[in-house]
């Protein structure tokens, strides 16, 4: 082991992408192992690596961690991205949970049947512009600070930045009515660790394509 966190997942976004984002934002280099066959996945289960028979799997600090939320809480705490006290942590948790609900729609979008794609896209746009982004626009406007919680860069900021870019891929003008979020996006994009992650050749994965969908179904379908 090199001492770097080791991430086991498919060579695509999925549930691992938020973990990649968080590690990258914290300035942490990591290694990746890509699953390509059902047999590889089943071997991980057989060897007892996957507590609940699910990936993502992150090996960090001598632990084999599963469950996206638990992994990210650990990384956020370890790298000082989780607030200064319980109240700030509770706010970060609330914001992250909200953004995760929106991200779940994005995660499932590539698996929509062709005839449902347009309807699901409309639903994503409606939720982003009416339910989720207004919350963060209001928070940033009310406290007039650069970051969501405690005027300090946190996990919540990373998660929101990931969500903004993911929604923009589907709905390019989604931020047109959110001036605070436009400023936030620009500031986040210029943070050195995030700027590096957004460059070509970084561990950031491209939007899921047909090959990714096919691989997911091949490996995880019962």
Automatic annotation (TrEMBL):
<feature type="domain" description="GST C-terminal">
    <location>
        <begin position="85"/>
        <end position="209"/>
    </location>
</feature>
<protein>
    <recommendedName>
        <fullName>glutathione transferase</fullName>
        <ecNumber>2.5.1.18</ecNumber>
    </recommendedName>
</protein>
<comment type="similarity">
    <text>Belongs to the GST superfamily. Alpha family.</text>
</comment>
<dbReference type="InterPro" id="IPR003080">
    <property type="entry name" value="GST_alpha"/>
</dbReference>
<dbReference type="InterPro" id="IPR036282">
    <property type="entry name" value="Glutathione-S-Trfase_C_sf"/>
</dbReference>
<dbReference type="Pfam" id="PF14497">
    <property type="entry name" value="GST_C_3"/>
</dbReference>
<dbReference type="GO" id="GO:0004364">
    <property type="term" value="F:glutathione transferase activity"/>
</dbReference>
<dbReference type="InterPro" id="IPR004045">
    <property type="entry name" value="Glutathione_S-Trfase_N"/>
</dbReference>
<dbReference type="InterPro" id="IPR004046">
    <property type="entry name" value="GST_C"/>
</dbReference>
<dbReference type="InterPro" id="IPR010987">
    <property type="entry name" value="Glutathione-S-Trfase_C-like"/>
</dbReference>
<feature type="domain" description="GST N-terminal">
    <location>
        <begin position="3"/>
        <end position="83"/>
    </location>
</feature>
<keyword id="KW-0808">Transferase</keyword>
<dbReference type="GO" id="GO:0006749">
    <property type="term" value="P:glutathione metabolic process"/>
</dbReference>
<dbReference type="InterPro" id="IPR050213">
    <property type="entry name" value="GST_superfamily"/>
</dbReference>
<dbReference type="InterPro" id="IPR040079">
    <property type="entry name" value="Glutathione_S-Trfase"/>
</dbReference>
<dbReference type="Pfam" id="PF02798">
    <property type="entry name" value="GST_N"/>
</dbReference>
<dbReference type="InterPro" id="IPR036249">
    <property type="entry name" value="Thioredoxin-like_sf"/>
</dbReference>
């Amino acid at each position: 082991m090199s001492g770097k966190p080791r991430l086991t997942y498919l060579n695509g976004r999925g549930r691992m992408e938020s973990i990649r984002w968080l590690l990258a934002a914290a300035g942490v280099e990591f290694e990746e192992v890509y699953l390509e066959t059902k047999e590889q996945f089943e071997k991980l289960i057989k060897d007892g690596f996957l507590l609940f028979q699910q990936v993502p799997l992150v090996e960090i600090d001598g632990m084999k961690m599963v469950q996206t939320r638990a992994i990210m809480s650990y990384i956020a705490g370890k790298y000082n991205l989780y607030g200064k006290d319980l109240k700030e942590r509770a706010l970060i948790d609330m914001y992250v949970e909200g953004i995760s609900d929106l991200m779940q729609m994005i995660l499932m979008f590539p698996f929509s049947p062709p005839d449902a794609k347009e309807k699901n896209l409309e639903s994503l746009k409606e939720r982003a512009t009416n339910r989720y982004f207004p919350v963060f626009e209001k928070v940033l406007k009310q406290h007039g600070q650069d970051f969501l919680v405690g005027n300090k860069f946190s996990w919540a900021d990373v998660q929101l930045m990931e969500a903004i870019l993911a929604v923009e891929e589907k709905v390019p003008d989604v931020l047109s009515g959110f001036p605070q979020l436009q400023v936030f996006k620009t500031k986040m994009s210029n943070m050195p660790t995030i700027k590096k992650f957004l460059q070509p050749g970084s561990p950031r994965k491209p939007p899921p394509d047909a090959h990714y969908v096919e691989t997911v179904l091949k490996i995880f379908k019962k």
